Amino acid sequence: MGNWVLRGWEKRTPGDGEGGPGAWGIWEQESGREKGDKEGGRGIWAQGTGKGLRLDSSLASPLIPWLRGRAGTLQENLDRKLFGQHLVSKVVVKAVKGFLNNENAKKPLTLSLHGWTGTGKNFVSKIIAESIYKKGLKSKYVHQFVATLHFPHAQDINIYKDQLQSWIRGNVSICPRSLFIFDEMDKMHAGLIDSIKPFLDYYELLDGVSYRKAIFIFLSNAGAEKITELALDFWRNGRAREDIELTDIQNALSVSVFNNKNSGFWHSTLIDKNLIDYFVPFLPLEYKHVKMCVRVEIKSRGYTVDEDILTRIADEMTYFPREERIYSDKGCKTVDAKLDYYYDF
Length: 345
Ligand SMILES: Nc1ncnc2c1ncn2[C@@H]1O[C@H](COP(=O)(O)OP(=O)(O)OP(=O)(O)O)[C@@H](O)[C@H]1O
Ligand SMILES: [Mg+2]
Prior knowledge:
Layout: E1 4-12, E2 22-29, E3 45-47, H1 60-63, H2 72-81, H3 86-101, E4 109-115, H4 121-132, E5 142-146, H5 147-150, H6 157-174, E6 179-183, H7 197-200, E7 215-220, H8 224-236, H9 246-258, H10 269-272, E8 278-282, H11 287-300, H12 307-316, E9 319-320, E10 327-328, H13 335-342
Parallel strand pairs: 4-7, 4-8, 5-6, 6-7
Antiparallel strand pairs: 1-2, 2-3, 9-10
Helix pairs in contact: 2-4, 11-12
Bound molecules: adenosine-5'-triphosphate and magnesium ion.
């Protein structure tokens, strides 16, 4: 069966013979003709509740092949797979679930994930994608941009701006529930990201396209020092990491990202105009979290966990600051490569 693409919406009233009232998506198989009652085949209809998709409906999943339809999996997966990031879980679940369940969102959802290397930013965007789309990151409605790969040359910034705008416009017209991930924001040329500002703003329609169901996620290391400073502060004062609250960090984070020439958001109107809904801070990972990552990796390869090897690998990682040695330099990155060495039999 080919992929199903959303072609438009149709209002239905009770008695139409095809489900209840509300807005129903008209779906078309990419290579095939439009399916509809008239042609004899049953159309694939996405049940809405008047203004759009209802993702949490248990009906949604079988009716819309590419949508998972159970935002509940997000919480479960974050709880189970993500270590040491209590703030992330809280904000991401609240933001994403709230947005998916809101029929009247006034703007697309914009999340900016910040933190030290290897602390789980790509990992979380993958979990978010998997909670919304059956194919996760591989879904054709999920678009990842990597600054150094897709926008490498400063002199081509105007071309990139045009390309980026038409890519987003084109894809949101095909599927309003599209996800755009911008990786390596801190390596993005200042100004490029501002070209997508109109899409993130509070417009009902722009040239006939509504962006209000789209999700934009930005990933960067910008602000990592600020986050680490805060975590260290708690640690030095004998306070639990889990007691760090979002309010302790969010404002400082947005200001430091705005004023950081290498953040991709330097003096960006996205921040200026409050178009980023959530700044999500990733805390630096401790020794115990590294161990948890190693354990997961060993199990995922089907090996039995050898506590000795597990400890040796965690010990091999380097930790900072120099005196206390609390946080892993590379987070949980490179754990898998180290495992190759020990389990290479
Ligand atoms: N908090 C975490 N909990 C569980 N696993 C993690 C966590 N952080 C990282 N990992 C593991 O380490 C791998 C690398 O992390 P990831 O690519 O998400 O880091 P990142 O924050 O995007 O780093 P960078 O800033 O260098 O891009 C993940 O695929 C995951 O397996
Ligand atoms: Mg990353």
